[in-house]
Amino acid sequence: MITPADRLQSVQEYYFSRKLKEVQALVAQGHPVINMGIGSPDLPPHPSVQQALVEALSLPKAHEYQSYQGIPELRAGMRRFYETQFNLAPDVPVDFLPLMGSKEGILHIAMAFLNPGDQVLLPNPGYPTYASVTELVQAEAVYYDLQPEQDWLPNFAALEALDLSKVKMIVIGYPHMPTGAPGSLELLQQWVDFARKHQLLLVNDNPYSFVLHHNPISIFNCEGAVEVAIELNSLSKTFNMAGWRVGMAVGKPEFLDAVLKVKSNMDSGMFLGIQKGAVAALALGSDWFNQQYKVYSKRRELIWQLADLLGCSYDRKGVGLFVWAKLPEGIDAETLIDEWLYHYHVFITPGIIFGSNGNGYIRFSLCVTEEKIKEVIQRFRK
């Protein structure tokens, strides 16, 4: 009898992969389901990005295998983007490795640096893929608590009290997903100092810096970060290019060389047209970011109205692509989510999928038009 590998016994199919099958089945039955659960931007990329892709189709080498490290133009564009948007000093000794989305970078980094039995500090709540990847490489997740009483920020005294003898890597991410905690340069410096003190690899997952956030920051704005950190970033949310699958790993050459050893055995380079489009996106300026801010601000105002209608509480200082909201006490989010899905035909994400500290919370996506959000409000008012 042929059975799956043992490593899959501790890993489930990604929640949204499973739940969207359920949503799609309802749609196939004719139900007008509105999906407020997924952070997949519904807005288009800038016209210049689309045009760059189209023009690349006729280039002589457009349809050949591409470099595992991306074209030089793309790597240079990523560097300029960091220097322009994150105030990265030109002399900071980091390189840029294009990825097919930053999500693959989480797995590549884990495979490059973790051995079976190594421990990884992961946020609770946090992106579920961190834990899944940790399990897939047969490492062990050790969770650090993020609590609303501390504005979803870590307790470094509690971290120092942990047995860190088997810990090799820490995963962080600010602006934080799902809570929307913006973080700060001071917080990132604390993480860098902690990682340096204990000689741990610090992975900063940073895809939300430009969504409803006026102060984009990078881990490499911190003193000493180059010694211990890799940063993941993505064009998915910033430039409405989720389906294009373009991300990057940023770090010192030795770290990226290790990641490349994994990556180069898993793909054969990114399609040239996508790379050309990414170069155009990375060159966009303040007009683009201001326009995105206006759209998402209006949507967030409507989501807040919906949250009020549902009796939820939330933090208006939260940033990013979601609104993180607490349900009234004593309500089971997963049960309620299913009731809403089948009665109102609205899908919202239960907070528990992000960890035990997400219990009692729900997450609204801003990737929904104003018209659809208004329609959801009307459905719940009936």
UniProtKB/TrEMBL annotation:
Entries under PANTHER family matching the protein: AMINO ACID AMINOTRANSFERASE, L-GLUTAMINE--4-(METHYLSULFANYL)-2-OXOBUTANOATE AMINOTRANSFERASE
Gene Ontology MF term list: pyridoxal phosphate binding; transaminase activity
Cell membrane found in the keyword field: no
UniProt protein name: Aminotransferase
Every Aminotransferase class I/classII large domain range: 32-380
Family per record: Belongs to the class-I pyridoxal-phosphate-dependent aminotransferase family.
Listed CDD domains: AAT_like
Keyword Transferase appears in the UniProt entry: yes
Cofactor(s) annotated in UniProt: pyridoxal 5'-phosphate
Record organism: Flavobacterium stagni
InterPro entries, sorted: Aminotransferase_I/II_large, LL-DAP_aminotransferase, NHTrfase_class1_PyrdxlP-BS, PyrdxlP-dep_Trfase, PyrdxlP-dep_Trfase_major, PyrdxlP-dep_Trfase_small
Protein keywords: Aminotransferase, Transferase
SUPFAM superfamilies assigned to the protein according to its UniProt record, in alphabetical order: PLP-dependent transferases (SSF53383)
